[in-house]
Amino acid sequence: ITHKGETKIRSACLGRSIIFNIFDPTSFDPWLNNPGGRYLSANFCKPGTEFNFEFNYFPATNRKKIMDFLDSIPQGTFVTARMILDPPHDSAQSRFWKNDTLLFGQGKSLFHSLFNQGFYDLDSLNKPRTFFFMFKKDDSTSFKPFSQMSNGTLDRLFVSMFPETTDTLATVQSPWMGPAQKWEEALWNLKTFTTDSRSPSSLIKLWGQTPTGQKVLLGSWSGMQDQIDISVFDAAVYPFMQFEMISSNQYGYHPAQIDYWRLYYQPMPDGAISGNDYFTSNFERLVPGENELQLQLAFKNISAQWLDSTRADIMLIDESGNKTPIYSTILRPIFAGDTAILHMNKSINLPAGTYQMRININDGNSPREQQLFNNLAILQFTINGNPLPLRLLQFAAQKNVEKVDLTWRVAEAELLQKFDIEHSAQGAPFTRIGTISADNPSNGSYSFSHLDPANGNNTYRLMMILKDGTISYSPVRSVDFSKGSGVRMLPNPFNQYFTLQPADASATWQLKIMDANGRVVHTERGSGSKRIELNGKAAGIYWVEWQTASQKEIIKMIKQ
Question: 297 has which bridge partners?
Fold first, then answer.
């Protein structure tokens, strides 16, 4: 366990055990168990184990020691638990712990002691695996209990926890903000506790960062001052800025708290690869040998500023990791909201195999952009030993009142096994919405109706699966179902959270947030306006699916 930036709490002395570490709720200092044996725990055996309270999880008498130890911990104290799993793995499953109620009485077992503190997925300890669990004793309101299981015995758990406490000294820094074309104004507001009879002293520092990464103090101001002109600082010299607050008070009283701090500036232009605006390729028709690689892909100016010419580089990576640059070009300058199209027609000799095409735009950050994470795309394609005989003759998507009718026709239908119909709303990753068997077609014709299209742009494609397992994709078709926005999500881009504001404040809604790979990272239910927290999630593009009983919308959000 790394505590306050220092790795001083280490692993086991016993093995086949659970190690508990106890932290003071104010100072976060760990309890000391030196020379060991407190609460009938094991003695410490090496540096780094003097903070551990370690107990074997077998037999039942040892599990009773753990129960008594947990009962003795004061309310409001932070507790971590790490399971050390060594063979044999008997007694390491929660079902054995539950059986201790036959010895100690109804609801009295190690399982129940941990479950009552918030370890609600403890039933998943049903095979050889380990866990990490952190809770605040008898207080799941101010700190939400956290648990994580390993998949098995070979993977390691890595967890970062950020419990909160009040202290008499506060030092806090903002994220780096920028890059800026021109700095304008800095604003901040500090709050104090009305119950304190003594006011804290507070200092606001403003740091600048040079293009080479050097950190320079630009100035310090009293926390009582809430506004300064920063236009005197050259954004070419300091393209990034950062706030720092230092506040102190006498023991027993509170430091100042940040209400907000803001930097106003003119941002850099920003572009993004936008396959939703335009994307075509011939990857599904490639065969071993000489090929003409064809790709057309949109790069969009998503800022309010003019974006100058940018360089696009394309590289192929084969199954052995060999990298081969195959194409470079200069894209034209782009007005705000406009797109430039990357065109590539490249003759190349490729054997059968799986390849990755890495498309990187403005890799050198010249001209400078606000963000570069959305300038990279990686496309995977496979060249099979046999050319694909399937021909898609026609594919159409048409709006029909409140649904979308899809129709298509193929040649060589006898080669097909099935069609998977895939759907994307507002550019979100494609998901399957239906499957049609290829058996007994009518003149090679098929149809499917999507009964629940999303508000806005709906995109469809077919995944065509042949009987030999070969897969091919159709071109995409789009149908607009704009019904007027039923919800707003602000700000966008956002840092740690955004606010959801439904047009109908009384409607009950459910929310699902997916990352750029389509993985669900957050779900929630509620009604009316609500602040949606995404603390700890990586910066990047997220797709927010908001749905009521009568409406569904998918909105692209950018976390900075």
Answer: 279, 342
8 Å CB contact between 100 and 60: yes
What residue type is assigned to position 476 of the chain? V
User: Which residues, at least 6 apart from 191, have a Cβ–Cβ distance to it below 8 Å?
Assistant: 256, 257, 258, 259
Single-letter amino acid code for the residue at 238: Y
Cβ–Cβ contacts within 10 Å for residue 6, how many?
8
* E strand intervals along 282-430: 289-301, 310-317, 323-331, 339-350, 353-361, 376-383, 391-400, 403-411, 416-425
H, E, C per residue of 62-92 = HHHHHHHHHHHCCCCCEEEEEEECCCCCCCC
> What is the structure's pLDDT at 388?
43
330 CB-contact burial (10 Å; exposed 0-12 / middle 13-18 / buried 19+): exposed
HEC-encoded secondary structure of 396-411: EEEEECCEEEEEEEEE
- Per residue in 236-268, is it b (16+ CB within 10 Å) or e — as a string? eebbbbbbbbbbbbeeebbbbbbeebebebebb
Query: What number of residues does the chain have?
Result: 560
Residues 558, 492: Cα–Cα separation, whole Å: 6
Residue pair 111/98 in contact (Cβ under 8 Å)? The answer is yes
| pLDDT band with cut points at 50, 70 and 90 for residue 261 | very high
Positive or negative CA dihedral for 492, 497, 502, 507? Answer: positive
- Determine contact, residues 380/452, Cβ cutoff 8 Å: no
Report the amino acid identity of residue 205.
K
The whole-model pTM stands at 0.40
pLDDT at 443 over 80: no
> What is the distance between the alpha carbons of residues 286 and 387, in angstroms, rounded to a whole number?
7
Query: What pLDDT, on the 0 to 100 scale, is given for residue 544?
Result: 87
Q: Is the pLDDT of residue 387 over 50?
A: no
Question: Phi, psi (5° rounding) for residue 179?
Answer: -70, 155
Using alpha carbons, select from 427, 484, 415, 481 the residue that is nearest to residue 450. Answer: 481
CA–CA separation, 448 vs 452, rounded Å?
12
Q: Can you point out the beta strands (E) in 223-309?
A: 227-229, 240-248, 257-267, 271-273, 279-281, 289-301
Question: What 3-state class would DSSP assign to 105?
Answer: coil
Q: Which of 435, 385, 395, 441 is nearest to 415 (CA)?
A: 441
In this structure, the number of other CB atoms found within 10 A of the CB of residue 269 comes to 21
Tokens of 519: 């993985």
φ/ψ of 429, rounded to 5, equals -60, 145
Gap between the Cα atoms of 300 and 328, Å rounded: 18
The one-letter amino acid code at 247 reads S
Q: Is 290 exposed, middle or buried (0-12, 13-18, 19+ CB in 10 A)?
A: exposed
Torsion sign across C-alpha atoms 151, 154, 155, 159: positive
- Neighbour-count burial of 1, counting CB atoms closer than 10 A to its CB (0-12 exposed, 13-18 middle, 19+ buried): buried
